[in-house]
């Protein structure tokens, strides 16, 4: 298994960034959930015209996409936090290679190398 050369200061900073990112993602998800609930409540049992229904459905679809994306990112953030605690932060969960520090700075929840992430994205698009 590869060994990273990440110093304690960097790891502490990354942990704080991950915790803040997690908080923000949950906050956005809560807001999207509240918006969805408000849309459903305001629609009530009253007749709606087609444009109102279309707008409401588009907003619901957008909120669902945001929630789904945020759930996936929260999972990645949680995994990155686990890796910090395990001492494996900066090592790919896939191939065991070192994840470059620059990637961790740009995307602190990275648990895979860029190449692996691209491959995963391609695979998920095909499904």
How does this model look, in words?
Residues 32-53 are annotated as: Disordered. It is a single chain. The protein has 127 residues and is mainly α. It has one domain (8-126): Four Helix Bundle (Hemerythrin (Met), subunit A) (Up-down Bundle). It is 72% helix and 0% strand. It is built from 4 helices and no strands. The model has no long low-confidence stretch (mean pLDDT 84).
Unreliable spans are: none
Summing up helix and strand content along with how strands pair, one would put the structural category as mainly alpha
Q: Can you give the helix content as a percent range?
A: over 70%
The coarse overall form would be elongated
* Largest sheet composition: none
Alpha-carbon Rg, integer? 19 Å
Number of domain units: 1
Report the CATH superfamily. Answer: DksA, coiled-coil domain
Zinc finger (dksA C4-type): 92-116
Region (Disordered): 32-53
Organism: Luteibacter yeojuensis
InterPro entries: DnaK_N
Helix and strand topology:
Layout: H1 8-43, H2 50-86, H3 101-106, H4 114-126
In short:
The protein has 127 residues and is mostly helical. The protein contains 4 helices and no strands.
Features:
Four Helix Bundle (Hemerythrin (Met), subunit A); TraR/DksA family transcriptional regulator; DnaK_N; 127 residues
